[in-house]
Amino acid sequence: MEFVMKQALGGATKDMGKMLGGEEEKDPDAAKKEEERQEALRQQEEERKAKYAKMEAERENVRQGIRDKYGIKKKEEREAEAQAALEANAEGSLTRPKKAIPPGCGDEEEDEEESILDTVIKYLPGPLQDMFKK
């Protein structure tokens, strides 16, 4: 019956024979073949890593060329410069550096408020403009 099953399966693999209850065929060179296969996989992986490292180096050269052309700095460089500036300002200070006040916050003058009021009055009808001007 086993012979008939193997004949019926035709090109079935050795694993199919094992699953159907056949005896395992021992390959004397199985360990050697497996070792060669593992070595080939390691070599392929190393070649792949080398290829991608080379490609990334080429990309970084292109990026650096663009940065040089347009005067752009890397994020790390900008952060390092900002940190150095903070340290230079804080040198000798016992407190943390003060935060910069954004322009337009805090020290506003009354002239600007009056100009806003004038702008609003300009769009009012005539009699209401007269009431606000007095």
Automatic annotation (TrEMBL):
InterPro entries: Synaphin (IPR008849). GO terms for cellular component: calyx of Held; cytosol; glutamatergic synapse; perikaryon; postsynapse; Schaffer collateral - CA1 synapse; SNARE complex; terminal bouton. One of its GO terms (biological process) is regulation of synaptic vesicle fusion to presynaptic active zone membrane. Residues 15-60 have a biased composition (Basic and acidic residues). Coiled coil: none annotated. The keyword Cytoplasm applies. Its main location: cytoplasm. One of its GO terms (molecular function) is syntaxin binding. It is found in: Cytoplasm, Cytosol; Perikaryon; Presynapse. Residues 1-60, 86-114 are annotated as: Disordered. The keyword Cytoplasm applies. It comes from the Eukaryota. Keywords: Coiled coil, Cytoplasm, Exocytosis, Neurotransmitter transport, Synapse, Transport. Transmembrane segments: none annotated. Binds to the SNARE core complex containing SNAP25, VAMP2 and STX1A. Belongs to the complexin/synaphin family. PANTHER family: COMPLEXIN, COMPLEXIN-1. This is Complexin-1. It comes from Anolis carolinensis (Green anole).
